[in-house]
Structure formats: C-alpha cells, structure tokens
Amino acid sequence: MTASPAPPAGPQRLLALAQLSNSIGDGAFYVTSALYFTRVVGLTPARVGLGLTLAWAVGSLAGVPLGRLADRRGPRGAAVLLALATGLSVAAFLVVRGFLPFVAAACAYACAQSGLAAARQALLAGLVASGQRTRLLAYLQSTLNAGLAAGAALGGLALHLGTRTAYLGVFALDAAGFLLCGALLLRVPAVPGRGTAVPPAGEHGCENGDGCGDGCGREQGRGRERSRPAVVRDRPYIALTLLNTVLLLRMPLLSLGLPLWITQRTGAADWLVSALFVLNTGAVTLFQVRVARGIGSPGSATRAVRRSGWVMLAACAVFALSAGVPAPVAAAVLVAGAALQAAAEMGQSAGAWQLSFDLAPADRVGEYQGFFGTGVTVARTLGPLVLTSLLVEWGTPGWLLLGGATLAASYAMGPVARRAAVRTERPTPLPAARPCAT
Question: Which of 77, 113, 66 is closest to 186 using CA atoms?
C-alpha cells in the first residue's frame, strides 16, 4: 500500500500549498544568495558570513517570543503576518547596497522566518489531532523538498545566466512566494488564541481580584509566573532540544561537509555533490510520509530516533570508506552512504516532530516550537565549523566520532522524553477557587 502523494483536501492541503509556495523561492534563494550578496550587493565573503551569523543568532532569540504571540493572539493571524514580514525582508535585499543595511535586512529575515516556523506549527497543532500531526508534517516535509528541488533548478538557471537581472528575479520570486504563502494561510480556518495572561478579576473565584484570600494570592503568583516563558524553565524540554540539535548536525552535512569531503579527500568527480543533493531531496519527497507512518506516540517516536541513530552511524562509516579508493568505487560508496543518510534523516525528523508536539503544553505550542526550532539555527551556525574540523581535518576518525555522537544523542532522547512526559501528563493542580472574605 503506498502513501497518497498529497494530504487530504481542506486545511491540510492548504498548509501543503503554502509550504510549496515559499519553498520554491527558497530553493532558488539558497543556491544564488551567496553570489548575489558578493556580486550584486558588493560585500566580501567574510562580511556575508559575519552578517548571516549575526542575523541567525538574533533570529534564534526571536522564535520563543513570536511563538508566544501566536499562542496568545491566534496562530493563523500571526503566521500570515510573519509570512508577509518574511516576504518584505526578502524584498529589502533587492535594494540594500551596504553592510549595515544588509545586516538589518538579514536580521529581519531571520526573525520572521523563526517566528513563522513556530506560528505554523502552532496552527497545525490547532487544526489536526495529535495522532495525525506527524503524518501531516511528513507530507509538508515532502512538499518542502519538492519545492526546494524545483527552486534550485530555477536558481541554477539564474547562475547560468549570471546577470544582475537574473539574480534580482530570484529574490523577487522568493518574496512573492512568501506573499502567496500568507494569502493561502489566510484561507485556513482560524484557531483561537489560548492566552496565558493573568486571569482577570473574578475568574479565579475572587470578586475583587486583590488576591485577598489564601488561594487567590497563590493564583496571582501563578499568573505572574506564567507571564514569563515557561519553556526556559522546562529542563526536560531544554535537554530534548539540545539533543535534537546534535542530531541536526546532519543538515550542513549535505551542503558543506560532503562537498568538502568529496573534493578534498576522495577522487570522485565534483558533480557528484549535486547528484547527492538530488538523491536526498528525491528520497525525502518520495518516502518521508511512508517512514512517518506508525509514529504516533512518544514511545514510537523514541524508537524511531534510536533506529535512525544506528543508520546514521552506518552512513558515517560508509562515507569514511570513500577516501583513498578509485574514483568509480568512491562514487558508489558515496551514493550508498547518501542513501543511508537520507533514511536516517527521515526517521529522525519524524520522531523529533512527534516528541516536540507531544511534550509541549497544549496552550503553549507556539512558544515551545519556537524554542525547539532554535536547534535548527544552532546547527546551521555551528555545524559548518564542527563538520569542517571533524571531516576535513580528522578524516575517518572524525566520521566515526560524528556517527557515535549521533547514536549517543538518539539513545539519550528516550530517558529525557520519559521525564518530560511525566511533567506533561501530571500537571500541578490549581488551588481550589474560594470566595474572598469580606
């Protein structure tokens, strides 16, 4: 039995179309942005790297407050506004011609992207039952990869033309994609905000709201505590996010680690870098939904993550074998390693999605997803340095260390998830409401 190529009609399909609309532009953006910023904007590569690092550092801090905003005011409205903000920030790149304006636009882009990801997850959680979320996320991931592949082809055409107009067209396409994304999200049913503000007077049983009674005073203290982000005090969820960040070091592997390994440590042809990218995106597009099938609880999610840890260790070991062998053999080994890496990625992604939702309080999904999403930013920021040191400088021992760290993190997810589940399933009871003494 094969999985349907598209999610069911209705809100789920609208979410997929919104994902597709901006991922095509993103695919073109990713393959052309570095040359656009150096050739059109006129920045040095060092300044581009510094500016983007600063931007994503700022963006990682914005995810939690913007996610809280989505929880309070409603995720659909927040997602629409953040999609528009992302489109406008991309459009700003069309007119910047200096380092400081570039950094300002990049910070706006990173903040809007981080907030949009959190708001989308909160919107999904409000529209879909918990047992169906991982399956829908698998559809969205397949859609994302299909859009990225199509966008990368358009970006390749712009690179081939090499003109300023072609580069500007790519950025205009990406900006328009986010505007269309916002329009599609606006057609999704609204999910009411589940605010966490201090209860108004009388809501907790006190007629004047002064906290005059024993229970009322405790309730006011609880309200003040809830005014701060709960996720920063949730140690199990913080640990879960840190472990997932280790697993996400696979993200810069395809874009940086493998290209450097292939060109500097193996005799394989350089074009194999592109072939492995196509292999990965194609595999995720075709099989992510099937891999996610059967994952619907923290237990099944942790088992999937553990299995993916072993597969990733095997992938790293296979990649290491590609050094010092004839070019045809190296190419075959690299393809085998890339297939294993894609399988590990799909299992890890599906398990992490399930855990990130199941272990977050129902009224704080946006806030918690905003924090969980910082793992992506950290992996993208620190991953290039880590992978360059491990793979290019250490060679085979570096590959084995990367695989071992992934396996260790995947096994540690189980105990951490169980601890977080206890907190989620047995919340602290609120004190009984009592009338104020007059």
Answer: 77
